[in-house]
Amino acid sequence: MALLLGGLAMFGPFSIDTIFPAFPQMAAQFGADKLAMQQTISVYLAAYALMSIVHGPLSDAIGRRRVILGGLSVFIVASVGCALAPDLRILLAFRALQGLSAGVGLIVGRAVIRDVLHGSDAQRLMSHVSMIFGIAPAIAPIIGGWMLGAGRWPLIFWFLAAFSVLLLASTALWLPETHPPASRMPLRAGRLARDYLAIALNPRFQRLAAAGAFGFAGLFLYIASAPAFVMDLLGLGEQQFAWLFIPTIGGMTLGAFLSGRVAGRWQPPYQVGVGYACMGVAALANVLYSALAPALSVPWAVLPMSLAAFGVALVFPVLTLAILDMYPRQRGSASSLQAFTQLVLNAAVAGALSPLLSQHGLHLALGMAAFVVLGWAFWRWEARVSRRFPPPPSSPTLEPGDQL
Q1: How far apart are CA 99 and CA 49, in angstroms?
Q2: Nearest alpha carbon to residue 337 among 347, 327, 350, 349
Q3: What's residue 103's pLDDT?
Q4: End-to-end CA distance of the chain
Q5: What phi and psi values does residue 263 have, to the nearest 5 degrees?
Q6: CA–CA separation, 207 vs 383, rounded Å?
Q7: Contact 19, 182 (CB under 8 A)
Q8: pLDDT in tens, 104-113
């Protein structure tokens, strides 16, 4: 289950990171500048965010397995369309279609985990999936660089299509349906809107979702800025993205491993506090190095990313499970709305903030530090409120409108 869910979570990040090394080649072919090429990321993320609010409720209504299989099928078609795109306009259209379908693995997979396991067992499986998922951004640009060595940029999208076919076959063979018909809820627009409104207006959901979204956004700023950071600021080549991604994902993998090991031993608030402490130290070190170094260079410029990723991996499973436990009957909807919050912020980072900050290393470092501070502030707010008004234990009859 961990391997399969980890693989399903990987094809979304693959769609972002594998094309980074191909930006110069694609820009030359389409006559596009760096800002235009950045839209291949922001369009994908915007579509991902838009559809993320549908994947979860749809899986609550018709089952997890059907939604995953349908999303993978659409993603395969979209990847083939990207490979055959004759111009940037067509490429962006199929990138949007990729984004509309790519969220099924990650969003519905979270609901699958909580369907089958509870408490520390769920945290362990979530951490194991995170370890596998964390490999994707590390190896994706490396694979993209290899593809460019073997051919031109369309080969990257043919790889994405082939990987998705493998996932489709694996899901059809080995993923059981974890959401039986007796537990399903009808997909009605009016009820869905009311459920989403109730979840979105819940102050505790807002605090938890913001703490996770802002905490990860500091790291994602560097992921979205990878072409400029690696090739322009660090002066590396198109096949050297591993200098950024391997330390980053190494830290994330170690953090996910530790999260699984301490599940049931560390109290969740303590684990989140340790995670944010790591992110804070990383952000401070990053700002100091970027401000004092005459020029950015490896490995010093990427070491803070490793520590920040370690902290993110400690924080994220706890916050995600806390959100899913708030709504046991609407886990798909809660997972979708959490993902939507994260993805809207990621799309803004990739489409607007990254082009503004990626020209200077210090600007990127300050942007990362600001996101870490914001995430920590929302977590401290939630911790203070929870001490005064602890949430009630999860109940299978809890409704989104209930006060927590």
Answers
A1: 8
A2: 327
A3: 82
A4: 32
A5: -60, 125
A6: 10
A7: no
A8: 888 888 778 8
Calculate the average pLDDT of the chain: 84
Q: Are 171 and 271 in contact (CB under 8 A)?
A: no
What does the pLDDT read at residue 394? 44
Q: Rounded to whole angstroms, how far apart are CA atoms 202 and 4?
A: 33
Query: How far is the C-alpha of 39 from the C-alpha of 31, rounded, in Å?
Result: 14
- Please check whether residue 218 is in contact with residue 375, taking contact to mean a CB–CB distance below 8 angstroms: yes
Crossing angle between the packed helical segments 88-102 and 23-30, to the nearest 10 degrees? 140
Torsion of CA 35, 36, 42, 48, to 10 degrees: -170
* List of the chain residues with pLDDT < 70: 134, 137-138, 238-239, 388-404
User: CB neighbours (10 Å) of residue 216?
Assistant: 26
Q: Which amino acid is at 398?
A: L
CB atoms inside a 10 Å sphere around CB 87: 11
342 with 12: CB under 8 angstroms?
no
Q: What radius of gyration, in Å, describes the C-alpha atoms of the chain?
A: 20
Q: How far apart are CA 232 and CA 295, in angstroms?
A: 11
pTM of the model: 0.74
Give me the sign of the Cα torsion angle 384, 385, 387, 388.
Answer: positive
User: Residues 18, 159: contact at Cβ < 8 Å?
Assistant: yes
Query: CA torsion, points 182, 188, 194, 199, in degrees to nearest 10?
Result: 50
Rounded Cα–Cα distance for residues 20 and 224 (Å)? 9
The tokens of 393 are what?
């234990």
So what's the pLDDT on residue 348? 85
Instruction: Give the model's pLDDT for residue 286.
Output: 95
The residues, ordered by sequence, that sit 6+ positions from 384 with a Cβ below 8 Å of its Cβ are none
What's at 223, amino acid-wise?
I
Helix axes 109-116, 2-17, angle to 10 degrees: 160
Q: Which residues contact 205 (CB under 8 A, 6 or more apart)?
A: 199, 323, 326, 334, 337, 338
Q: What are phi and psi of 54, to 5 degrees?
A: -105, -35
The full length of the chain comes to 404
Supply the pLDDT for residue 203.
92
Under 8 Å between Cβ of 296 and 290: yes
The 3 state secondary structure assigned to 365-390 is HHHHHHHHHHHHHHHHHHHHHHHHCC
Return d(Cα 212, Cα 200) in angstroms, integer: 15
